[in-house]
From TrEMBL:
Belongs to the SorC transcriptional regulatory family. It comes from the Bacteria. Pfam families: CggR_N, Sugar-bind. InterPro entries: CggR_N (IPR048715), NagB/RpiA_transferase-like (IPR037171), SorC_transcr_regulators (IPR051054), Sugar-bd_dom_put (IPR007324), WH-like_DNA-bd_sf (IPR036388), WH_DNA-bd_sf (IPR036390). The keyword Transcription regulation applies. Residues 90-336 form the Sugar-binding domain. The keyword Transcription regulation applies. Residues 18-88 form the CggR N-terminal DNA binding domain. SUPFAM superfamilies: NagB/RpiA/CoA transferase-like, Winged helix' DNA-binding domain. It comes from Tepidibacter hydrothermalis. This is Sugar-binding domain-containing protein. Keywords: DNA-binding, Transcription, Transcription regulation.
């Protein structure tokens, strides 16, 4: 395919340009429900005249629907978009970048989406869709799926499709709650995914950060203990990765502890652990849920994280888990190339 693309670039560059433009338009319509032509023009930095012409073409090809409220992609368009992705990744150099980052990090697999989540929040939706697509390739009947919380994880949960393809699926939160935002807590995300996969889900009704005395007491509760046993036996873990400073603020960490972890070079956080760039633990919170030794033992782990700001956090987690599957974006990937 690569050789064919190189020939096309030399002989018919205008064909690739048109294909890329229409791919971007289709993708943007798929990410935005009922988007209007003017909004589409602004998002893609194309003239309204060009957008109008391309939209008319896509409509004639029965790839989109046009309503008074705006445009939406139909099933034909979604199928074509999925088929085009591999080809467009080659054109945009995404496939080459994926292989480059995989080698630099020394991990199992890297999936990269165009853009930078720091500049465009819709990139997170693309990451969510790609994560769901990969998950459906490895999930099996009777699997236990563990999930963490966070905005990126919520976007992934919302991107999952309702299906009854799998039997006896159980989804569990990998840890307790964090903060007051119920929507992005792992309990809520586990419930959303469990329902969409037509399976069951368990909840972990405990705070994420508690004293050791309270922690030991809660573990003895039968229902909590049962959920913790499920967590220790997950077949697939889907988790988000945070920046150390951002997560410390969300947890309302004491200023003295914050200064300590920053002085020790903390760059990333996952499962209540704060890591430096070499993947060394700088600080550990008292948390109920998955432990680092459990994380290292899980066969299928999918880390989803977007934005160049989180590049160092990705470096940290990749040091800990070499059979990791990473779903990220160009912004993070390019920053990783700068850092290594």
């Amino acid at each position: 395919m690569k050789k064919l693309i190189q020939i096309q670039k030399k002989i018919m560059p205008e064909v690739l340009d048109v294909m890329y433009r229409r791919y971007k338009i289709l993708n943007q319509i798929s990410l935005n429900e009922s988007i209007g032509r003017r909004s589409l023009s602004n998002k893609l930095d194309l003239s309204e005249r060009v957008v109008r012409s391309e939209v008319e073409f896509l409509k004639k090809q029965d790839l989109i629907e046009i309503y008074t409220s705006g445009m939406s992609i139909n099933e034909n368009g979604l199928n074509l978009l999925n088929d085009l992705k591999v080809f467009m990744d080659e054109i945009m150099g995404i496939s080459e970048l994926e292989e480059k980052i995989k080698k630099k990090l020394g991990i199992k697999k890297v999936i990269i989406l165009p853009g930078n989540a720091d500049d465009d929040s819709l990139v997170i939706k693309d990451i969510g869709k790609a994560t769901y697509k990969y998950l459906t390739k490895i999930i099996k009947n009777d699997y236990i799926i563990g999930v963490t919380g966070g905005n990126t994880m919520l976007e992934f949960a919302n991107c999952c499709h309702e299906t009854k393809k799998y039997e006896n699926i159980l989804v569990v939160p990998a840890r307790g709650g964090l903060g007051k935002e119920v929507e992005i807590q792992s309990n809520n995300i586990a419930a959303i995914i469990g329902k969409k996969f037509g399976g069951n889900y368990k909840l972990l009704h405990v705070p994420d950060n508690v004293t050791e005395e309270t922690l030991n007491s809660l573990i003895l509760e039968p229902e909590i203990n049962k959920t913790l046993n499920h967590i220790q036996n997950v077949d697939i873990l889907v988790f988000g990765v945070g920046r150390a400073d951002d997560m410390a603020r969300r947890r309302k960490m004491l200023d003295s502890d914050y200064q300590y972890i920053m002085s020790k070079g903390a760059v990333g956080e996952a499962f209540g652990y704060y890591f430096n760039r070499d993947g060394e633990i700088i600080y550990e919170t008292s948390t109920i849920g998955i432990k680092l030794e459990n994380f290292k033992a899980i066969k299928n782990t999918i880390g989803i994280v977007g934005g160049s700001r989180k590049a160092e956090a990705i470096l940290a987690i990749s040091k800990i888990k070499k059979d990791l599957v990473l779903v990220t974006d160009e912004g993070a990937a390019n920053k990783i190339c700068e850092l290594i």
